[in-house]
Design goal:
Shape: globular
Largest sheet: 2 strands, antiparallel
CATH architecture: 3-Layer(aba) Sandwich
Strand order of the largest sheet: 1-2
Distance between the termini: 47 Å
Number of domains: 1
Strand content: 5-15%
Mean pLDDT: 96
Length: 138
């Protein structure tokens, strides 16, 4: 099997790090509104990849995150008066319903950005400490 490498701009043989295992991480939607065609395209494309790998007898782990904190979500909170959790839970459920309607298989793991805030803050501080990132007051 070959996979297109968008950096090298050519097809390369698929060579997993661990033989017969494939781990896939896909950046999922920012959940402040209903799913759109771009979400469907990404989900269907990766669903096809997962199904193909499984048909080739690979052990596949599929991870797709939900960005559940973002300026657009905060704006929606301010506009509607709903809580962040109410908005994000609603749109995650809607997104999953839409993907099921398209026949997309469930992901193995679906983390939310808010579940990793401490780790993100630590990484950002590490970048600032190394002078490869900076603070902007806005």
């Amino acid at each position: 099997m070959y996979i297109y490498d968008s950096v090298k701009k050519k097809k390369l043989p698929f060579e997993p790090i661990v033989p017969r295992k494939a781990s896939i991480y896909v950046c999922g939607p920012t959940v402040y509104d209903d799913a759109h065609l771009g979400h469907a395209r990404s989900s269907l494309s990766f669903d096809l990849l997962v199904r193909t790998l499984k048909a080739l007898r690979y052990d596949v782990t599929m991870v797709k995150n939900f960005t559940d904190i973002d300026d657009k979500i905060i704006k929606k909170v301010q506009e509607t008066g709903q809580s962040l959790e109410e908005i994000t839970t609603h749109y995650i459920e809607r997104y999953l319903e839409d993907m099921r309607a398209l026949g997309v298989q469930e992901n193995d793991i679906e983390p939310k950005a808010t579940e990793s805030l401490e780790a993100m803050e630590s990484m950002i501080q590490n970048l600032i400490d190394k002078d490869i990132a900076y603070v902007v007051n806005s």
